[in-house]
Amino acid sequence: MLVLLILHLVAALVAPLLVRWWGPRACYPLALAPAAAFGWAVARTPAVRDGGAVVEAYPWVPQLRLELALRLTTLSWLMTLLVGGVGALVLVYCARYFAAGSAGLARFAAVLVAFAGAMLGLVLADDLLLLYVFWELTTIFSYLLIGHSTTRRASRWAAAQALTVTTFGGLAMLVGFLMLGRHTGGYHWSELAGGGLPAGGYLVTAVLLVLAGALAKSAVLPFSGWLPQAMCAPTPVSAYLHAAAMVKAGVYLLGLLAPVLATAGPWRPVTVTAGLLTMLAGGWAALRQCDLKLLLAYGTVSQLGLLTVVLGAGTPKAALAGTAMLFAHALFKAALFLVVGAIDHSAGTRDLRELSGLGRRAPLLAAVGTLAAASMAGLPPLVGFVAKEAVLAAFTDQPVVLAGLVAGTVLTVAYTARFVWGAFGTRPHAERTEPQPVPAAMLGPPALLAVAGLAAGVLAGPAGALLRPYAELFGPVPEHLALWHGPTLALGLSVLALACGVALFALRGPLAPVLARVRAPVGGAQGYEWLTHRFDRLAIEVTSATQRGSLPLYLGTILLVLVVVPGGAMLAAGPWRQGVPLWDTPLQPVVGVVSAVAALLAVGARRRLTAMLLVGVTGYGTAMMFVLHGAPDLALTQFLVETATIAVFVLVLRRLPERFSARPLRRSRWARRAVGAAVGVVLAGLCLVAVGARTAPSVSRAFPDLAVSEGHGRNVVNVTLVDIRAWDTMGEISVLVVTATGVASLIFQRSRTGPRPRRPRRPERPAQRGPQRPVWLRGGPTLAERRRSIVFEVVTRLLFHTIVLFSLFLLFSGHNAPGGGFAGGLVASLALAVRYLAGGRYELAEAAPVGAGTVLGAGLAVSVGTGAFALLASGSVLQSAKLDLWLPGVGDFYVVTSLFFDIGVYLIVVGLVLDILRSLGAEVDRHIEAAGKTERGLIVDPQGRRP
Amino acid sequence: MNGSGATLVLVVLVGVLAGTGVTLLLERSLTRILLGVVLLGNGVNLLILLGGRSGDAPVVGTAPVDRMSDALPQAMVLTAIVITFGLTAFLLAVAYRSWYLTGNDEVQDDLEDRQVAELAARNELPARDLGGEGPDGDPEQVDPEPHLRRQHRGETP
């Protein structure tokens, strides 16, 4: 069975290629895939004839207890025959239906074969989850097939509607399956069926959900709106999906589950009510259609309602009748759709108001169509008659249902007569149709199906024997299928229905106003449109109620939640720390007061620069607190970062207005301050709670020993960064790389990887002043005269290399003393910043003649490379090792491999700052120059352009 | 100075920094928001640091191990400081970009959200995305128009 599924998959994959080579004729070889499924099912007939099963199972996702469990029993055998047989015939039909070079034919052929495969999987699946997977696959493929004409709006609309409705049903069904499987502990239907059912509301809910899926797929009310819409699809698709295969999936599921679930809760009331209503409404609607295809579509809806009633009933007689009806319907409806396609193809229309005299002009087509239609109307000796007899006989003990079924049959007879009359009759007013000859490949498939219907009718006895094992699941079967049971009630009702149906058709003229007036209050399309419209409206309302678009409002909401929920929990149960000292050293309150005052002043500051400097004070204050806490590494980093931050701030603030814009809303200020105060209090409280909540000794107690023994370093913080918790650092430097890229991409409107800015080769100014004047910084002369500071340039020139050397010292000594890659990188960055501030953007290019991206990339590569190398060498990522080395003149020394990781960190920090200087510094300078506002710029090229 | 880590002064400072930071965060000027982030960052860094005890510098050999301050929160805060720096630079770039494009660095209300709110007030839909493709609008639809209209034209078959 798996081989068949794979065959379909392969055929679907090669289909586009074949279509490219052979055009529509590629459908002939593609038909072999479903034909193989048909042949295989025929060959397995002996195995299932006595109620046996063919089983295959392959493990798939054992954690979900999901298996590729396939199982062929009578019902799935019947469906396999239909899916394979009709599929093969439809593909043969397609070979002539489509003209050579039709748009999208390659996709169509592939999807149709894939659909056949999915449908085969659906009917063979024993695992309910697997069934669901195939179920949704058929939904998706049917979406693609219905929407075949991608340029037509109606086609896209219909495809979307079918997708939405059936997916909705499918999801509901999945929940139902999960509920059933949860209860019994497995998803194999064959085991689940014997495992005992849940009870009460749980079962009712599960059954209703599964029914929703089945009814939506089979277009039974209230889900039937999508099927008539789906008639936009090419006719072969309608013949296959909407007659033989996909819409049958729903009733197949009913038939599969009925042996167990038919007695459960709402099953029977729902299937009988929905089915009967659908049968009557669909038949009634079919009576007023002028498009032959729509007429058949509504007829299909009606028949699906009938099948829902019969297969859902769950009695032996009904089960036998249901399978016969399923078989009969697939044969005659697929044949009729194919006939309509042929009419459309040869006459150029399928509107029965425009067709006339086709019966005489195309007698063979008319014969095939009439034969299939006779089966639909239930005329002997066709299989439709046998099935209808059996159905009526199965419900003789339920008069209400029986009456409904007879009424539905009357409608069926009437719309069948309308179909034959419309397609092949001669109308006096209409112009006589001049059909093109119908090719054999388009006549053969429907003829074969129609003749099969005749053969199955004549051979009703043996055919019924094959279906008996399914009916026996419900108990002993007293009936058998036959053309002649003697003068029974069912026969009488059949005759009555035929007579009434013919009468109804004969009265079509006088009845036309009634037909037009009595219709469903809401059509399928309108109902769906109304529903989706309401949904959109709901989304708009909800969005507008919850998303006001105001950032302060969002943040305020989040912060209030922080205050209320963790703050409330803290008040309720916080383990408060007892006996917190006022301060460790007397310096702490001094620094604390200064920082707090600066922070409070920063809130009220009106000038940007003032606010920034006040915030800087709190940063330095925090650094002092780090010192007092006993964290020299932190303090060093904080001091350096604070300085770098101020430098970067100044670069941007030179462009922004000096003062903050005056805010008109003064009322909200107090709200903001209240939120701020509340958050401050809660965080301070959380601080105390967090400190008091420790119940176990800190893991870091062991760090000093580990640092020496494993990390080979004495600075515990640095060893933590590059060894013990090196993964954290790895993540963090990746973030830095992303940040740097983000900054650059926000500022650069051109690629930043282009040639770096070059200092003008022949600066005019020094040339005027004479060459004897010493040049301290080569980029200096590019600055405007009043921006230059010779003292600054001289100091920069003298200090730059010393600072860089110091940064390297911090880097290398960081493993054993305060320092490390972060601190070293920041020092080197500050050196670069000084060069830029003293000499402008050309000086920056002189100082760092490489792209920031190169530095960042090199840093990341070195860090990752260290980790990867350790993985290769020791089998553990970022594992550090100590290398003992000797150099002449130096003597013995050792290198810890984590140093290389730290070098990567160093490079990334330098790259980050370099990128910031390039973006917020040099590139912003260029913007200023381009805007012609020279007074705010750090650098002014006197010529205003580069040579 | 081998203490528990948390002192009342530090706890209060955490509260003040966080409170002022949040107040600035709720502003509309990106510069102020950014300064708020920096203040909040300083406060939270201190908060994390207080998770470990204070003491001598955690450098083996300079002090007895049991008098050292806790190294783990320090390592965490160290990376946090540098990340805050990166975030500051990024937000500054955003502020600059905002100024470059609009002439100020104020965060405006989201335009789309405002449009949605207006639509809701008028009880309308945006573009009828699926609804706009209703079958009525298409001349090629199989069932081109309601049956009643055809009836009025006297086209009853």
Describe the structure.
Chain A: GO terms for molecular function: antiporter activity. Chain A: Keywords: Antiport, Cell membrane, Ion transport, Membrane, Transmembrane, Transmembrane helix, Transport. Chain A: Pfam families: MbhD (PF13244), MbhE (PF20501), MnhB (PF04039), Proton_antipo_M (PF00361), Proton_antipo_N (PF00662). The complex is a heterodimer of chains A (947) and B (157). Chain A is mostly helical. Chain A has four domains: 519 residues, no CATH class; 48 residues; 73 residues, no CATH class; 223 residues, no CATH class. Helix content of chain A is 70%, strand content 3%. Chain A contains 38 helices and four strands. In chain A, strands 1-2 form a two-stranded antiparallel ribbon. In chain A, a hairpin with a 4-residue loop joins strand 1 and strand 2. The longest helix of chain A has 34 residues. Chain A is elongated, with a radius of gyration of 41 Å. By secondary structure, chain B is mainly alpha-helical. Chain B has two domains: 101 residues, Helix Hairpins (Orthogonal Bundle), CATH 1.10.287; 41 residues, no CATH class. Chain B is 56% helix and 0% strand. In chain B, helix 1 runs antiparallel to helix 2 and helix 2 packs antiparallel against helix 3. Chain B starts with 7 loop residues before the first helix and ends in a 5-residue tail after the last helix. In chain B, 52% of the residues are buried. Chains A and B meet through helix 8, helix 24, helix 25, helix 26 and helix 27 of A and helix 1, helix 2, helix 3, helix 4 and helix 5 of B.
